[in-house]
Specification:
By secondary structure, this protein is of the alpha/beta class. It is built from 12 helices and 15 strands. Bound molecules: S-adenosylmethionine. Pfam families: MTS (PF05175).
Length: 382
């Protein structure tokens, strides 16, 4: 049974209802009302329908669909929310506006045929990008064009990779895996003094929430004998394995099966770069950014003492963006360290260099401009 149905306009196909399965990475439900649209549809009419919750199944020119998506985006740009009374309120309004934007833009749909191809005029070949993001094709599937553009962008990044100066190599992020485009936190891990027991051929480190595997690779290149990497996301585990192999580090970095945060046993160094903002992710792609109720942060802290060798250290990489947004206080963070029986050995700070930190048009600009990323060196209190 198809998840969504529509009626083909008379003259193209025999006017019979058509359908497809539905896929949405953000878990958006299948739209209940779907109308067929093509290049004759005016942006204002499309915007009205999309705002009312009617999905537009695109049958025109692929480039025309991209133009329409841009036109819808321009209309949504006019709805910039007013700043709230507090930074936290501004952040929540910003997220609400982003959610509304995603829902409206997500109403422009395209159909991926049974081999993941697009049967639209001037459409690119998206089959490989879709295999990478969704797996092998199974059936005719409707997706939002906006999501598909993300899948295509991710494919390009995966091919090209992200240069990591600390590795002297590129890391290749997969779709839905946190990409190390913000180099400052990688540099912190590349330069903080390693615990003596880790920097030996028999030394062990854990990298919790490894994502692309970038920090595990940096530790291995710094001379840690064996790095065990974990992640709750199967996409991240596959991506980390791919990067470890490309870098020739398969003998030194083991990407663990399963989704447990901590591997078995103890290590001289445990590194954790959890998502930095305590909020609920709304899609798989956001799982590297939002940590609901700081669950991963708390699990890292409470498990640390039981997983460290004597004189071992835990390195928490986290920015203070959540503090500037009023989502967490510095005291909350220090209290969480103390509650887990941990003391601070030292802290190394870096200023972000990414372009959003310098964009005054960003509604969160003040918080981003003040942001500092820190590597907290933690050890159990005696
Ligand atoms: C901010 S990203 C960091 C990725 C990588 N370590 C880096 O520094 O680029 C956080 C990672 O933690 C993973 N993650 C989130 N919650 C988790 C959990 N409860 N257990 C294990 N991994 C988790 C996410 O899938 C994501 O890959």
């Amino acid at each position: 049974m198809p998840d969504i149905r529509w009626t083909e306009p008379a003259g193209q196909e025999p006017g019979a209802p058509s359908g497809a399965h539905w896929h949405s990475e953000s878990g958006a439900p299948a739209p209940r009302r779907v109308t067929v649209a093509d290049d004759r549809m005016k942006a204002d009419a499309a915007y009205r329908l999309a705002c009312e919750g009617t999905a537009l199944l695109w049958r025109g020119d692929y480039q025309g669909a991209r133009q329409l998506l841009k036109a819808l985006g321009r209309r949504l740009d006019r709805l910039t929310p007013k700043p709230g009374a507090t930074p936290a309120e501004t952040f929540h309004r910003h997220r609400q506006a982003r959610g509304h934007r995603a829902r409206v833009l997500g109403m422009l749909l395209v159909v991926l045929e049974e081999d993941h191809s697009l049967a639209l005029r001037r459409a690119p070949d998206v089959r490989q990008a879709c295999v990478e993001a969704y797996g092998p094709p199974e059936r005719r599937t409707a997706v939002s064009l906006r999501e598909l553009l993300g899948v295509i962008g991710a494919h390009e990044w995966r091919k090209k990779g992200v240069e990591i100066p600390a590795l002297g190599a590129r890391i290749h992020p997969h779709y839905g895996v946190f990409s190390p485009v913000r180099g400052e936190y990688v540099d912190l891990v590349a330069t903080a003094p390693l615990p003596a027991a880790a920097a030996r051929p028999e030394g062990t480190a854990f990298d919790l929430g490894t994502g692309t595997g970038v920090l595990a690779a940096v530790l291995a290149r710094r001379g840690v004998g064996r790095v065990l990497a974990t992640d709750s996301s199967p996409r991240a585990l596959a991506c980390a394995r791919d990067n470890v192999e490309r870098l020739g580090l398969t003998g030194r970095v083991r990407v663990e099966e399963g989704g447990a945060l901590y591997p078995e046993g103890r290590a001289a160094l445990v590194v954790c770069n959890p998502p930095w903002l305590p909020a609920r992710p709304t899609s798989a792609v956001e799982q590297g950014v939002y940590d609901p109720d700081s669950a991963m942060l708390k699990a890292f802290l409470t498990g640390l003492a039981d997983h460290l060798e004597p004189a071992g250290e835990g390195w928490l990489i986290i920015s203070d963006l959540a503090e500037h947004l009023g989502l967490r206080t510095r005291d909350d963070l220090l209290a969480a360290f103390a509650a887990a029986g941990l003391g601070v050995v030292d802290r190394h700070d870096a200023k972000p260099r990414h372009p959003r930190a310098f964009d005054p048009g960003d509604p969160l600009h003040a918080a981003r401009a003040a942001e500092v990323t820190s590597l907290w060196r933690l050890a159990p209190l005696a």
